[in-house]
């Protein structure tokens, strides 16, 4: 097992990796449950008198969610009820100076670690440990704490590099999510098991589908991923809204695998029977997938699909959710995501909802977290844990 905060010596200078990757709307970073959860870890460390420098990422280069962490520092300050200083630099002169001035009980947020090219480089953990980022920052601290459970599946420098050269501990979020999600993996279900798969990241979900073949009876597809499956099934769908680029690259990469999955899983994969879009008046409109004739950017599954998915949920003993069925952040296109989540909440089935964005729908639409067995703040990491795949961050902490 890994070491936890219970094992930390007193008065340490700590480098703490959190995952505050958040939705960004019109340049504004949206507060979400990740902040509140990580704030608990940071409060515990600061209250204990440790000096805390925080490392985190936001978005990916090339995406419009790829922004600096200045707003994250403000949001964290509100949650912590103490100032979180921010330095617009990750391991250069400015950040080293700020780290130098960091006292016990203080919290400093370094700049988006994905602004350092080495972070995302495709390298082994050994090579990551030799990067300038890791070599420089590791020399400034006594120990490294990884609380970023939701990034635990990414073999990036800040996740797998530091634990090779520093004393490493799991933060509270890492510890509790790991325990909860491993417990799920060990359960056995007598009845039917359904998995709701949506959102934007096809490669994550396809990996899952291949691994849970023996456990899951029905896959309920939606979101961008659902449209990719519909396209593979012969429907003329999968067109981006202006300014987004979800479909073409993923289609080129995944077309063949999606076709194979459709062939081999047959009826176990349920695809949307209707979809919703914004009409000329700006209202929600729906169309059956059979009737789609012109290029349309769809933003939700339709009401016929929700009805079908609700009845699958009602017949299931366990339901796992990863990814939203539509752009639920816009009330007009929340019906799919909210409809299915409410159907789950109405039953007493064992249920797990994951996905940093998706789980936010629970809060946004006034649902009660207690109606679900577990709500994870992780997306890809949660799904991998669920399917028994090991997480590189956990392996690194266990070394
Ligand atoms: N048809 C669609 N068009 C555009 N975006 C969509 C569509 N359907 C769902 N989404 C978006 O998918 C997002 C959720 O999926 P995503 O795969 O990003 O994340 P997640 O599973 O919640 O979390 P994580 O990022 O933690 O893996 C939502 O923000 C929603 O707006
Ligand atoms: O939000 C997440 O799922 C994590 O922060 C990982 O982000 P990524 O999918 O961009 O690597």
Radius of gyration (Å)? 21 Å
Mean pLDDT over the full residue set: 94
Structural class: alpha/beta
Q: Helical proportion?
A: 25-40%
The largest sheet is:
6 strands, parallel
**What small molecules does this complex bind?**
adenosine-5'-triphosphate, 3-phosphoglyceric acid
- CATH-defined fold name of the largest domain: Rossmann fold
For the termini, the CA-CA separation is: 9 Å
CATH architecture of the largest domain: 3-Layer(aba) Sandwich
How many structural domains in the coordinates? 2
- Specify the number of helices: 16
Strands, count: 17
Instruction: Give the C-level CATH assignment of the largest domain.
Output: Alpha Beta
Low-confidence stretches: none
Assess the beta-strand content as a share of residues.
Answer: 15-25%
The main sheet orders its strands as 5-6-4-1-7-8
Mind telling me the CATH superfamily name of the largest domain? Phosphoglycerate kinase, N-terminal domain
Shape: globular
Binding site for ATP: 329, 355-358
Family: Belongs to the phosphoglycerate kinase family.
Protein name: Phosphoglycerate kinase
InterPro entries: Phosphoglycerate_kinase (IPR001576), Phosphoglycerate_kinase_N (IPR015824), Phosphoglycerate_kinase_sf (IPR036043)
């Amino acid at each position: 097992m890994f070491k936890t905060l219970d094992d930390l010596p007193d008065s340490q200078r700590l480098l703490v990796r959190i995952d505050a990757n958040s939705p960004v709307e019109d340049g504004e970073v949206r507060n979400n449950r990740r902040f509140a959860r990580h704030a608990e870890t940071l409060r515990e460390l600061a209250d204990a008198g440790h000096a805390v420098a925080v490392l985190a990422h936001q978005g990916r280069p090339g995406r419009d969610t790829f922004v600096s962490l200045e707003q994250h520092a403000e949001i964290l300050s509100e949650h912590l009820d103490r100032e979180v200083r921010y330095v617009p630099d990750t391991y250069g002169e400015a950040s080293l100076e700020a780290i130098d001035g960091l006292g016990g009980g203080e919290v400093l947020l370094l700049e988006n670690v994905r602004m350092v090219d080495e972070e995302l480089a495709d390298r082994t953990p050994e090579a990551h440990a030799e990067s300038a980022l890791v070599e420089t920052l590791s020399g400034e601290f006594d120990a490294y704490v990884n609380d970023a459970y939701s990034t635990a599946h990414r073999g990036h420098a800040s996740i797998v590099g530091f634990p090779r050269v520093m004393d490493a501990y799991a933060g509270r979020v890492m510890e509790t999510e790991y325990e909860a999600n491993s417990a799920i993996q060990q359960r056995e279900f007598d009845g039917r098991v359904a998995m709701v798969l949506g959102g934007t990241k096809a490669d994550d979900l396809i990996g899952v589908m291949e691994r849970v073949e023996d456990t899951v009876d029905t896959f309920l597809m939606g979101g961008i991923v659902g449209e990719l499956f519909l396209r593979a099934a012969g429907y003329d769908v999968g067109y981006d809204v202006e300014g987004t680029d979800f479909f073409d690259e993923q289609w080129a990469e995944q077309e063949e695998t999606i076709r194979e999955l459709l062939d081999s899983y047959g009826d176990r994969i349920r695809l949307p029977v209707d979809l919703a879009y914004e009409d000329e008046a700006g209202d929600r409109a729906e169309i059956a997938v059979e009737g789609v004739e012109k290029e349309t950017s769809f933003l939700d599954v339709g009401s016929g699909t929700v009805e079908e998915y609700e009845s699958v949920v009602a017949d299931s003993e366990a339901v796992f959710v990863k990814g939203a069925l539509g752009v639920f952040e816009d009330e007009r296109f929340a019906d799919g995501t909210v409809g299915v989540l409410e159907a789950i909440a109405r039953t007493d089935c064992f249920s797990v909802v994951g996905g940093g964005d998706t789980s936010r729908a629970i809060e946004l639409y006034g649902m009660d977290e207690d109606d679900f067995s577990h709500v994870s703040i992780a997306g890809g990491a949660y799904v991998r844990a669920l399917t028994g795949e090991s997480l590189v961050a956990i392996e690194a902490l266990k070394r």
